[in-house]
Amino acid sequence: MSRDDDHRQDHDEHVADPCRPLPRRAAEHLGRELPPEPSPLELMELMERLRTFLSQHCATPYEIDPDDQPAREACWALAAFLEDKPVRDRSEVAALWYVARRCAATGASPRRLGKLLEPAIVWLAPDDEAALPIRSRFARWMVQCGGERARFGPLRAAQLYRSLVPALSGHGVSRARPIEVWRETLAGLSELGQWAGGPGGRHPVIGLESGLAYARLADQVGRRAEAVSRLQTLHRQLREPGAAAEHAATLHLTLLDIELDLCVLGAVPLD
Questions:
Q1: Which of 51, 109, 142, 234 is in the most buried spot, having the most CB atoms within 10 Å?
Q2: Which whole-number Å values give the CA distances from 20 to 12, 15, 52, 53, in the listed order?
């Protein structure tokens, strides 16, 4: 996507949400009279008021009521202040999370969404259960970025899933781990496996890890047939010459693990 395309997309996203504040330059272009620019001290005071306001209007640690217009406006304002700055508290995460989803709904590119939400991801702790929906959505956006970038792309997603999958595994669907998070994670893992090319593709380790993670999580939310199919596919792929060479050091143990998983599911390898 070209810079002009990004600019047009940003403009469309702005128009689509009436709560998003009009950029100062755009307002000047429209001939609107604006007050003087606030001083740095005034900006700091405003940010602190916005943080306090949002912290009082969050129904959960990182969620505002979507029908609360003042809270929505506060999210847009705080997100504008936070551009390219580190996150300091939960209210700022809530603001970025709300704004990122609104931008996603208006067609923003996955890379733009990732850049917007990344400060929140950096601040969040891996064991923060309330943040699982945020981390799951961000990981999928990273997969959808494509390419080989380490920061914004599937390689970043692979790192995220290595902590996200254990946080879900063994717990089942719950209030802290709603079914939407499981679906989002499974979809992201499936797309990541396709990008990697499976255990014999251009990223064989990621291809194998994502496939195994998908199968084991799918079984935990009642998608047994998908789990069996994925494990049987991985077993077959690992026995092909290219994949076998890539995973030679651990091939025997990996195949045994898959066969045990299939046995637990009441199935057997197809090859």
A1: 142
A2: 12, 8, 20, 17
The model's pTM: 0.83
Is 13 in contact with 108 (CB distance < 8 Å)? yes
Q: Which pair of tokens denotes residue 251?
A: 């091939």
Task: Read off the tokens for 42.
Answer: 């005034």
Phi, psi of 114 (to 5 degrees): -65, -45
Tokens of 133: 């929906």
63 φ, ψ (degrees, to nearest 5): -125, 130
Residues near 84 by beta carbon (within 8 Å), at least 6 away in sequence:
none
Question: What are the b/e assignments for 181-190, b being 16+ CB within 10 Å?
Answer: bbebbbebbb
Query: CA–CA distance from 144 to each of 7, 32, 214, 248 (Å)?
Result: 20, 39, 17, 30
Q: Cα separation of 216 and 258, whole Å?
A: 10
DSSP secondary structure letter of residue 130: G
Of residues 242, 218, 222, the one with CA closest to residue 230: 218
What proportion of the chain, given as a percentage, has pLDDT over 90? 67
Residue 47 in tokens: 């940010």
Two structure tokens written together for 45: 């005071």
Detail the DSSP E strand segments found in 183-232.
Answer: none
Q: Do 103 and 117 touch, CB atoms closer than 8 A? A: no
What contacts 168, CB < 8 A, 6 or more positions away? 132, 177, 181, 182, 185, 217, 220
